[in-house]
Structure formats: C-alpha cells, structure tokens
Specification:
Helices cover 34% and strands 24% of the residues. The protein is an alpha+beta fold. It folds into 2 domains: 116 residues, Galactose-binding domain-like (Jelly Rolls); 216 residues, Rossmann fold (3-Layer(aba) Sandwich). Strands 1, 2, 3, 4, 5, 6, 7, 8, 9, 10 and 11 form an 11-stranded antiparallel β-sheet that branches. Helix 6 crosses helix 11. The longest helix has 58 residues.
Length: 445
Amino acid sequence: MQKSFALSCISLLITLLCIFCLGGCQSDFSADSTDSTTTQTIENSTERTTEPLMDETTTTLPQAEELTTPPVAEESTTEPITEETSTETEEKPVVPEKPLELKQNTYHFCKNRENFKRFGRMVELTDGLTCDFTASGVEFWGRMQGNVTVSLSCDRDTYFTVFIDGVRVEERFYATPTTKELCIASFEDGEEHTIRFLKQTEAQWSLCVLESVSITGFLFPAPENREFLIEFIGDSITCGYGNLGNPSTPVAGIASMQDGTQAFAFLTAEALNAEANMVSCSGIGIAKGWTAINELEFYQRTSHYRDPEMVFDDNSRVPNLIVINLGTNDQDRGCEEQAFKAKMKELILFLRDFYGPDVPIVWMYNMMTYGCFTWARPVLAELGGEDAGLYAVQFTPNKQGAGNHPELAAHYAASEQLVQFIKDKQFLEKSDEFESIFDFVVDEE
C-alpha cells in the first residue's frame, strides 16, 4: 500500500515538471516572434518613408539651386579622360627644341629657277644663266649656315657686288677666266638671310654664266619683285666707266676701274626702292659712236656681244620709267644733225611701240658734255614734250674720273638730283596719265 502511494506521488511530480518546461519554451518562442515581427515592421516602415522623402526633396528644389547643381548626367555621358589627355594639363619642364639640322645643298640657277629672282637681261643656256649686262644678276633667300659659294664662268676679268640682308658688302668679288667658284658669304647662325649677287662689269668687257650656288641649308621661293622698275639706256656713263679712277689713272677702260653698281643709274633705282634694268654700252651713240652699231641696234638684241643674231622681244614686264643718257659719243664722233635727230626719233618711237605709250621717258644730258642736246630738244618737242611724257633734265659736267669720265662723287650727286626730279614729277605714281604720241606719229607718216 505504501509502495503504491509513493509511485503515484512520483508520477504527479513528473507531470508538473513537464508542464512547467513546456510553458517556458512557449514564452521564449513568443518573444522571438514578437522581436522578428517588430524588426521587419520597422524596416518596412523605413523603406516606405524613405522613397517619398527623396521625391519630395527633388520636386521642391528651387530653380536657382537646380542651375547651380553640378550636371551629374552630363558628366556621366562624357568619355573618360585618358592618360594622354590628362598629361596635357600637367605642368612639365620646358625642353628646348632640337636645332634643325641644315644639310649641304646645291641649287642650279636654271633648273631651280623658282628660287631665284633675276635682274636684267638673262638667258638660260645648257650650262647656266647668262649674266652679261651691268647690274644684272640674281637674288635669293633662305636658311643658311657656313659658306655660300657660286659656281660660274667668265671669259675675262669680272667684278661683282654682293648685298647681304639689304646691306652692300664693301669687298669687290673678283673672277678671272680660270675662276670656277666664288665664296660670296659666310654665316654662323644658320638663320634666314637674303643675298643679291650683281655684276659690276659691262657686257662689252665681260660675258659670264652663272651655274649654281651651294649652301648648307635650304632656299625659299624667289623674293617678290619690287613694285617699280626703271630701265636705263645709255653709254659708258651709265655703265660707270672710270668711276673708280681719277684723271691720272693710266688705263681707264678696264674692269678694275668700273663699278656699274655705283653708277648714277643703279644708285637712283636703289634710292627709290626700284629695280634697275641696264641696257648700256661704253662708246655707243644714237647715230654714231665708237662701236660698230648704234643704240637702237644694240637694244634690239638680247646680248649683242654674246649673240648678235638673238633678237630681244621680252616685254612681259613693262618699266615704270625709262631714263636715257646718250649723245656724248655722237658729239665726240662728229655726228651729223639730221642723222642724230632721225635716229633719236626712231629710238623713242620704238620704245613707245614696244612698251606702250604710257611709260614716261627722261632724257639726261651734260654729265660729261652737252651731248648734242641742242638737236635733241626739238625732237622731244616734236613728239609731244612733257604732255606726251617726254622730259629732259640737265646735270653738271664732271670729268674727274678715269678717262675723263665722271668720278664716283659725281655719280652720287647725279643720282641725288635725278631722284629728286623723279619724285617731283611723280613718275612712279602716275605712269598712265600721259597723252599717247605713238598713234599720232604713225598717222602722220
């Protein structure tokens, strides 16, 4: 009996313990569920309230703030900056450029004609470019370093003048029949320079051919022509005969006593910033001189002493002014009046026909003697005088150079006078305002 009661008590105790344990577990489970539910509810609530807040902020921004807000959309569509682009904005130390390497080059005066400006009557030959007349030659410019050497040939003693960057070099450059090359300049800097190479000696005493120029560097296209061109037609005075000598000089008629680039004609053109074209020859006359031909015959040939059969017919560039200094040799040789007048008239009419009626012509006289001007004056008047663009100007005679010719100082003085005369008459400003006389003379005949 006691044993049975004890078993009942133990069974009741186990039952109570089980009930107590089950109740604690249920409480824990309910707490966990409540926490999870609460957390989820808060998160969902946050998500729901965040989106409306952003929309509300975007739509309520003032317009001024929209303008000042960085354009994020535009930035996102641009291409990314590459390393090459980014380096452009970086500051780098300045590195000096490597100097341009100048190489040896040879330019031929004919084959590379586009690099040279020509002065005077020049003809292309198989071996080069003729350079016969007083002050004929070439001009070129480019980057040059070291020596500048001209290859050439001359049949007799010849002198040349060189201008570098517009400045005359004092040295006279001398060539003989055995001379093959002339070093005419030398530069250390390798910079741009302009060189003008001109013949001092007249055609009657020397015929030359310019072949090529060798430089360390390169040449540019030929310099542009100057605006004005003056053509000078004359005798030994225009050539500069004896201008480097004096009355005691034993021999006047040699190349060493003559510099055509210091004669009045060339000096006048330089002073007026014009180009000069010389068609002059010592001893020549209008009708009678010390040469076998007269001036008109000499003029009508390209280079009489090189080829007396080659006719000159190039009037592609019309001079702005023609200056004639003739008559001295006609006077010395005892020319007859009617012959002089006829040949003078023939020369002027030829020039009018060749270049047109509008080019003014200036007749110079008295640099050595009166030069038959008493016969020349009525011819100018007959052909229309100043109304027809025909002028005359008198100079002071001078025979203090070699061979009773004008000395150097006289050429500079004559140039100064002629320059002033040209300026006063404004020849280089109105070369198209003269009355035509050529048609009048043709109709008369």
